[in-house]
Amino acid sequence: CRLFLDTADTSEWDDLLPRGMFHGVTTNPTLLARANEPCTVANLHSLAEKALSLTNEFMCQTWGATADEMYRNGMQISEMDRDKIVIKVPVTAEGTKAATMLSKSGVRICLTACYNSKQALIAGSMGVEYIAPYLGRMNDNGKDGFKECVRMQNIVDGLGSDTRILVASLRDADTLGDLAVEGLDTYTFSPQVARGLFDEPLTDDAAEEFEAAAAMSSAMARAVE
Ligand code: E4P
């Protein structure tokens, strides 16, 4: 299982990453803009340094109007650490060409902005490491995002491919459990969804009960002394 925190807000990294359940961090130009982080190679290197001090992988997106531009930016971002930086590339015609060029240069790849299970065939046949379907945004566009993600997992399994289906654009924590039952094991989600994973009042009640019992038994022990 691999969980990623989907934000460029480093105050959220400080709060959530020490909990230890995240394999890495994911960002894209939209998330960088939302966090007032410049989308530049220099800034991505500084974010990568911080993310990799707290997790195992930093996944960030290249940009450019042509495959050559996407390739150039992707190479520059990943040169800092080819083992731990994964470059996201939109699964467009130009993006896929850039991803192939990057892959041949030893760069780890995540095809992203996936809205259709048939795109899993592209990822599986290229042998890229990840493909990221946007579950919530598929639902926003009248598709059944859950079903498309399950179909993608079936496709890569059927191909005998090692490509991981990195489910993105998740809007609630319960959907992770439902997808995990269907065999999906790789997710990226917002801090809000991450907090939702801890939202279980019965667990909080049980923890409080343990604390009360511990306090009572240590008070009794002190009284006996
Ligand atoms: C992934 O790269 C995107 O940042 C994200 O999953 C999109 O989520 P949203 O549709 O909730 O904005």
Helix-strand topology string: EHEHHEHEHEHEHHEHEHH
Q: Could you report the average pLDDT, rounded to the nearest whole number?
A: 97
CATH architectural grouping: Alpha-Beta Barrel
Question: What is the number of strand segments?
Answer: 8
Low-confidence sequence ranges: none
Biggest beta sheet summary: 8 strands, parallel, barrel
The count of helical stretches stands at 11
Here the CATH topology equals: TIM Barrel
Q: What is the distance, rounded to the nearest whole angstrom, between the alpha carbons of the first and last residues? A: 49 Å
Supply the number of structural domains. Answer: 1
- Would you state the CATH class? Alpha Beta
Small-molecule binders here are: erythose-4-phosphate
- Report the portion of residues in β strands: 15-25%
How would you characterize the overall build of this protein?
This protein is globular. Helix 4 (67-78) packs across helix 5 (93-104) and helix 6 (119-126) runs parallel beside helix 8. 38% of the residues are buried. Helix 5 (93-104) links the parallel strand 4 and strand 5 (108-114). 53% of the residues lie in helices and 17% in strands. It has 225 residues and is an alpha/beta fold. The protein has one domain (2-199): TIM Barrel. Erythose-4-phosphate is lined by residues 6, 26, 28, 31, 112, 132, 134, 136-137, 168-169.
